[in-house]
Amino acid sequence: MTITELVKQYTEISDFLNQHWPLKNQQHRTFARTMKIVEELGELSDEILTSMNLQRNSKIAKFTHQNIEDEFADVLGSLVLLGIELDIDVEKVIKRKIEFTKERFEMDQSTN
Q1: What are 54-67's pLDDT values in tens digits?
Q2: What is the domain extent for residue 52?
Q3: pTM for this predicted structure
Q4: 3-class SS string, the chain
Q5: How many domains in the chain?
């Protein structure tokens, strides 16, 4: 799946969420999307701690790597939803930041 396809799928999800759980305005939607990122990042952190055996034994016993994958996907999806809400061209800004990072660390540009 390309970034463009990912954003298209999440645009449909955003439309669904906004239709079924409408919020007062764009500012409230932005706040809600931001809080969702915080929630999902906490869940990912929890799963990472579990993978490191730093949680209670009952939680460790139920752990699978898929838990981390699912929470990672939730964080990524929530970030894309926030990007949509903020009218960010996700693919464009990711490409720009990759180039910035490569230049910053003087990485070989011929690997593009």
Answers
A1: 999 999 999 999 99
A2: 3-111
A3: 0.89
A4: CCHHHHHHHHHHHHHHHHHHCCCCCHHHHHHHHHHHHHHHHHHHHHHHHHHCCCCCHHHHHCCCHHHHHHHHHHHHHHHHHHHHHCCCCHHHHHHHHHHHHHHHCCCCHHHC
A5: 1
